[in-house]
Specification:
The complex is a heterodimer of chains A (279) and B (918).
Chain A: E1 4-5, H1 10-19, E2 23-25, E3 44-46, E4 56-58, E5 62-66, H2 71-76, H3 84-91, H4 96-101, H5 104-110, H6 117-122, E6 127-132, E7 135-140, H7 141-144, E8 145-147, E9 150-151, E10 158-165, E11 171-178, E12 189-198, E13 201-210, E14 217-218, H8 220-226, H9 257-278
Chain B: E1 11-17, E2 20-26, H1 32-39, E3 58-61, E4 64-67, E5 80-82, H2 95-103, H3 112-125, H4 131-138, H5 149-156, H6 182-187, E6 202-208, E7 214-218, H7 221-226, E8 231-235, E9 261-262, E10 268-274, H8 276-280, E11 289-293, H9 300-304, E12 319-327, H10 330-333, E13 339-347, E14 359-365, E15 368-373, H11 378-389, E16 396-400, H12 416-426, E17 430-433, H13 436-442, E18 449-457, E19 463-475, H14 481-491, E20 500-509, H15 523-541, H16 545-552, H17 572-596, E21 600-612, E22 622-629, E23 634-638, H18 647-659, E24 666-670, H19 687-710, E25 717-721, E26 724-729, E27 732-737, E28 748-756, E29 775-787, E30 792-803, H20 810-829, E31 854-860, H21 882-894, H22 905-917
Parallel strand pairs in B: 1-5, 6-17, 15-16, 19-20, 23-24, 30-31
Antiparallel strand pairs in B: 1-2, 3-4, 3-5, 6-10, 7-9, 7-11, 8-10, 12-20, 13-18, 14-15, 14-17, 18-19, 21-29, 22-23, 22-28, 25-26, 26-27, 29-30
Helix pairs in contact in B: 2-5, 3-4, 11-12, 15-16, 15-21, 16-17, 18-19, 20-21
Classes of the chains: A alpha+beta (279), B alpha+beta (918).
């Protein structure tokens, strides 16, 4: 029988990882689906009993979201409007069962191109904290995910937290997902945006599109084009097809490449319009 | 309390399940669902996918819903788990369970534990939720039967629901009676294919082809088995006594285990039998099979191409069947038409997606074989198993378990011959449960179609001619392909009076899983074509689309395309008249909405259908029996399998009124081939009409015998008190103690029997004849909203008017219409099975609770004199008009006519762009 470790502290967990190859298990919402009809032979490190990895707190310069915080916990947490987009994304993940079990770090470590959490976190300028036996360090989310199902995480490392920097100005975020049905659906494309405002004008913008490349992408050209714009219900009109030119969507069972670019632009515009209208 | 665990290997997990402290020792990574079912015996929790896609396994952990198939049992340590078995406190149904029973919210019941548990989570936090909150809370559980509407109604009513009193004797027919077998589906007691497997059974795992087409050689199977502890035997084609099965007596073309060549991805090659641990440990890469991939024939065009490689060597041109209906001279008649429309339509494979995967177990008892299996057709299973096993029919007993959804997909053999052969050879019980990907890869599908159709009418709008060729992809083996290819031409001109019809149906073999029976047998595909024609012809003449259909609707006295004159019960005109006010309102609402809307547009569409009940031009009998024991126990020996549609309840209602005793007196033996008579298959919308008539005759037979015994008048009121049967008539009370009678058949001292075979006649070379004794009719209205920028479609409302002859139980009729409608919505908007690419329930999408429109049913009762109390069938009709109505509504909203389903967002967006550039 394979081994199964369920430590209660991070030092125990990273010490175990340092000693040998273990599969990290948290909410199980990606682990088990990849093993349908297959024997469970992996040596497991279950990190769900580590209290210190759970929960959201204000750390002064940033918000810290513990790795095993579930989507439901995020939805229920009292957080500023900055997190509205991430909360909307959380509600779009699977059904309530998945939101109750699935963890935010798991969504990142699984690194699916269609991960619902990634665009919203990119739009929050999220960083991830990586722990190993030597200590911990943080890096930007877009440096953490390398591509489809690939991250920089080494087998002896654990993603321990997600860090959300506090914006310099009042900020709001929004998110929209497009799927072929209402619940339990893999995204065809999704868009997330965070705007920081000063005197009714955009002073910082972070816009990301998911499921339209190997990993969700920020749209720096669009972000630059938004700076200084007056926030209004037509804000989305500043988004142009050329802002999506760097994206490389695929053709698959869910949609064509061309459609993903088309619909991605529509979603970005709608997300910006919504943020503009609310300001 | 979370206790740290840092040791390796087997561990002991302690948790509370439904209020009781329980322990599990074993692999801490084992799925909680498996622990609940296998180690704790709580089989109320169902496994539909093991991937978090269906939610059937939903349980509460510390009051929060989770998928127990995604939860390591270690994570339940020290916590409280609630399963469906824990909902009825002290054995009394909860308010939520009562509401489910009252509203008919459980059909097959396989998703019900998940639905109930998810709803219990919601109601514990929010006693009076809104419909939107119910949808959000239940969004993670898929249901394939109900169309969700009654589930939502039940959850909203949970706080106050009380069950209605049972209908009095003589008042059962037409009553909104709760399911007679409903409670077991709400408490987790019901036993499905995977639930009653005996301890100590061997398990069977199927090795399947990863290729669409390949030849293969087998290595040393005995050595492979010998090298693996617990592996008892590996079966191959040579172990199957007669290695061919199929629906038609003359086409036994599908091997139980492939013999040297595989013709579809997912075809069974080897059956590995051993302990559960042994077969679960199998590494597919080590199997002793060497494949040589061969080029596959994929799609109708490739199969029909001149010189195409043959899928089956003896089937020239890859043609399974070429069916015709010819009436008048369509080709000549088009010259005289004022308006002619013509187009080609395409549909893809559609998966049944019943939430219960195929499962069962078999056991050899002396020289007999017993097979317990989830099935729609125990008698066909029995006969087919006898052929495969080279045994006499009497040596086979099929005992149907509860069936967790079928829709046509459990009419073909799946696990039966595999576990049968293994149990026979090994002399031990052998069980098999398909995984979800295995179920999807190996089971039948709806036939993909390419339908060319041309239709014409005169200047007044009367249809003159329809010409159509419907080509179907029937996959690698015949299955129900001949049924589709003969049924479709009969129905191809739609429920309309058309003097000149030429209709052809062809089925071609390809290297895909067999296409088989799926709710409607090809008629839903055909309806997409003929209904688009109705819209186009009406538009060409500037007529209202409903009025055009009303003008042409078949009615009593009209002749069909096969020359059959409909004597009775042709209620399409009434259906359309009932829709008319809704149609006028919908059209006005769309116009008003579209005046102010920017990128969203609304449209209304209409779809009509007719559907021949029962087998096509073939004998289709049912026999039913009702027995009375010396103790006064009344038993309905019901050979009709209830697959969730409610035939157990319908048969009881019919039997109760025909006999004159209340429904509550009956107990039911269902489908057991040793105990019941052959009531045919649960298919072709036939059980209420055919078996219902047989049960009515059986009940009358028993009543006649009782009245004779009691010397009572024909109108006497019967009652049963223990072993005393009593009758009250004008002369007063008569009574008889059944204990005086000697048992004649089993425990029964008296039995009534009834048989019914609907009168049909064979079709001639031109397809002329009386293929069905009666037809169901329906018209549905769809109101949709199209997001023109994204190409997405939201169906806002469906109004469904169905002529059902007589609604024996309106709740169940509505349930069939809701469920069929949602499958029609799936066909129209999201469902497309791609072999090898969508073998799970997250790449293959079926509608969720959030996708349902507001559904309104209008029941038209144009009585069918042949049917029980005038009833016909409704199982399939709910699905057939929905996709045509949605497609018509999309056209009305946007001007685009979609000729390929599903209308995925990118397809509609592309069509809209094309129209914009024109």
């Amino acid at each position: 029988m394979p081994s199964y470790l369920r430590p209660t502290s991070l030092p125990e967990a990273v010490a175990a990882l340092a000693q040998g190859s273990l599969t990290v298990l948290a909410g199980g919402t990606d682990y088990y689906p990849s093993r349908v009809g297959k024997p469970l032979t992996d040596d497991i490190l279950d990190i769900s009993a580590i209290a210190g990895l759970r929960g959201i707190r204000d750390d002064g310069a940033h918000w810290r979201i513990g790795a095993t915080t579930s989507w439901s916990e995020l939805i229920a947490a009292e957080l500023p409007p900055l997190f509205d987009g991430l909360k909307l994304a959380a509600r779009e993940i699977g059904g309530v069962q998945i939101q109750n079990a699935g963890t935010i770090a798991g969504n990142l470590c699984n690194a699916s191109p269609a991960a619902d959490g990634v665009p919203a976190l990119l739009a929050l300028d999220a960083r991830v904290e990586i722990a190993d036996i030597a200590g911990s360090a943080s890096l930007a989310l877009d440096e953490f995910i390398l591509g489809n199902r690939r991250t920089v995480l080494r087998p002896d490392q654990l993603l321990s937290a997600i860090l959300i920097p506090k914006p310099a100005h009042p900020a709001r975020s929004h998110f929209a997902k497009l799927g072929a049905r209402k619940y339990l659906v893999v995204s065809i494309v999704m868009a997330a945006a965070t705007l920081e405002l000063e005197s009714g004008r955009v002073c910082a913008a972070r816009v990301a599109l998911g499921a339209a490349s190997e990993m969700a992408q920020r749209l720096p050209l669009l972000e630059a084009a938004l700076i200084g714009r007056r926030c209004a219900a037509q804000l989305g009109e500043h988004a142009k097809a050329e802002h999506l030119a760097a994206l490389t969507p695929i053709d698959d069972v869910r949609a064509s490449r061309e459609y993903r670019l088309d619909a991605g632009l529509v979603l970005v515009r709608r997300v910006l319009n919504e943020l503009g209208a609310r300001a | 309390m979370n206790r740290p665990r840092t040791q390796s290997g087997a561990q002991t997990i302690c948790f509370v399940v439904n209020g009781q402290a329980r322990e599990f020792s074993g692999n801490p990574a084992k799925r909680l669902a498996d622990v609940l079912r296998d180690d704790l015996g709580l089989t109320g929790t169902k496994i539909g996918c093991n991937a978090g896609d269906c939610g059937a396994c939903t349980v509460l952990i510390d009051g929060r819903q989770v998928c127990s198939c995604l939860t390591a049992v270690a994570q339940a340590d020290g916590r409280e788990v609630t399963t469906v078995e824990g909902l009825a406190a002290g054995g009394r149904l909860s308010g939520l369970q009562r509401a489910f029973q009252k509203h008919g919210a459980a059909q097959c019941g396989i998703c019900t534990p998940g639905m109930l548990v998810a709803a219990a989570d919601l109601l514990a936090r929010n006693r009076r939720p809104s419909a939107a909150e119910v949808k959000d809370a239940l969004g993670g559980v898929l249901c394939r039967c109900t169309g969700y509407q009654k589930i939502i109604e039940a959850v909203l009513d949970a706080a106050t629901a009380q069950l209605p009193p049972p209908p009095a004797a003589g008042a059962a027919i037409g009553a909104r009676a709760p399911k007679v077998d409903g409670v077991a589906k709400l408490t987790g007691e019901e036993r499905y294919g995977a639930d009653g497997i005996p301890a100590g059974a061997l398990w069977l795992r199927v090795a399947r082809s990863p290729y669409h087409h390949a030849s293969f050689e087998l290595g040393d199977l005995a050595a492979y088995a010998a090298a693996r502890p617990g592996m008892e035997r590996v079966l191959s084609a040579r172990d199957v006594p007669s290695n061919g099965f199929g629906i038609y007596p003359h086409i036994k073309d599908q091997p139980v285990l492939a013999d040297g060549v595989v013709r579809f991805r997912g075809e069974a090659v080897l059956a590995l039998v051993g302990t559960r641990a042994a077969i679960e440990a199998v590494d597919e890469a080590e199997l002793p099979i060497r494949y040589t991939p061969l080029p596959p024939v994929m799609g109708i065009a490739a199969a029909a191409a001149p010189g195409a490689p043959l899928v089956q060597a003896d089937k020239a041109g890859n043609l399974l069947l070429d069916g015709w209906v010819r009436k008048g001279d369509a080709a000549a008649a088009f010259a005289h038409c004022a308006a002619v429309a013509e187009a080609t339509f395409e549909t893809g494979f559609v998966e049944h997606a019943y939430i219960e995967p195929e499962a069962g177990w078999a056991e050899r008892l002396g020289d007999r074989l017993e097979v317990h299996v989830t099935t729609q057709t125990p008698y066909m299973d029995r006969d087919e198993m006898a052929l495969v096993m080279k045994l006499a029919r009497e040596q086979i007993r099929i005992v149907p378990t509860a069936c967790g959804g079928g829709f046509g997909g459990k009419l073909d053999l799946s696990v039966q011959p595999l576990i049968g052969v293994a149990a026979w050879l090994l002399g031990k019980p052998v069980a098999c449960i398909y995984t979800r990907p295995e179920s999807m890869a190996s089971s039948t599908k709806r036939h993909p179609s390419q339908i060319r159709i041309k239709s014409g009418c005169d200047a007044s709008g009367r249809l003159v001619a329809i010409e159509t060729v419907a080509d179907f992809d029937t996959g690698a083996y015949a299955s129900w392909g001949p049924t589709v290819a003969t049924r479709v031409p009969i129905h191809a001109s739609g429920p309309y009076c058309v003097p000149h019809v030429t209709a052809r149906g062809r089925a071609f073999f390809t290297h895909c899983h067999p296409s088989g029976a799926f709710r409607g047998f090809g008629v839903p595909q055909g309806a997409i074509a003929h209904e688009a024609m109705m819209d186009e012809l009406a538009d060409k003449l500037g007529m209202d689309r409903l009025a055009f259909r009303r003008l042409n609707a078949l009615k009593a006295g009209d002749a069909t395309a096969t020359g059959q004159v409909l004597a009775h019960s042709a209620g399409l005109p009434q259906c359309l008249d009932a829709l008319k006010p809704h149609w006028d309102k919908a059209l006005a609402a769309c116009t008003a909405y579209n005046k102010t809307s920017a990128y969203k547009r609304r449209g209304a569409g209409i779809g009509c259908m007719w559907y021949g009940i029962g087998n096509t031009a073939l004998s289709n009998p049912s026999t039913m029996r009702i027995g009375l024991s010396a103790k006064g126990e009344l038993t309905l020996y019901n050979g009709a399998v209830d697959i969730g549609q409610g035939s157990n309840t319908i048969m009881t209602q019919i039997a109760a009124d025909a006999l004159g005793l209340p429904m509550g007196e009956f107990r039911i033996v269902m489908g057991d081939t040793d105990l019941t008579a052959d009531a045919g298959k649960t298919s072709a919308s036939r059980q209420t009409f055919v078996s219902g008539k047989a049960v009515e005759l059986a009940a009358r037979d028993l009543r006649r015998k009782l009245l004779q015994l009691l010397e009572a008048a024909p109108d006497a009121l019967l009652s049963l008190e223990g072993s005393l049967i009593k009758a009250t008539d004008a002369q007063g009370e008569h009574q008889y103690d059944l204990a005086w009678l000697a048992p004649r058949q089993g425990v029964d001292v008296l039995r009534g029997e009834g048989s019914f075979d609907p009168p049909t006649s064979p079709q001639d070379a031109d397809g002329q004849g009386v293929p069905y004794a009666t037809y169901a009719f329906a018209a549905q209205l769809a109101l949709v909203e199209v997001d023109c920028e994204l190409g997405t479609v939201k169906v806002l409302e469906i109004v469904a008017a169905h002529d059902v002859g007589k609604a024996i139980n309106p709740i169940q009729v509505e349930g069939q219409i809701h469920g069929g409608t949602m499958q029609g919505l799936g066909l129209a908007l999201m469902e497309e099975y791609l072999p090898g690419r969508t073998e799970n329930l997250h790449d293959y999408l079926i509608p969720t609770i959030g996708d349902i429109p507001e559904m309104k049913c209008i029941l038209i009762e144009d009585a069918e004199p042949l049917g029980p109390s005038g009833a016909k069938g409704v199982g399939e009709p709910g699905l057939i008009p929905t996709a045509p109505a949605i497609l018509g509504a999309i056209n009305h909203a946007t001007g685009v006519r979609m000729r390929q389903v599903p209308v995925l967002p990118h397809r509609l967006r592309a069509a809209l762009k094309l129209m914009e550039t024109r």
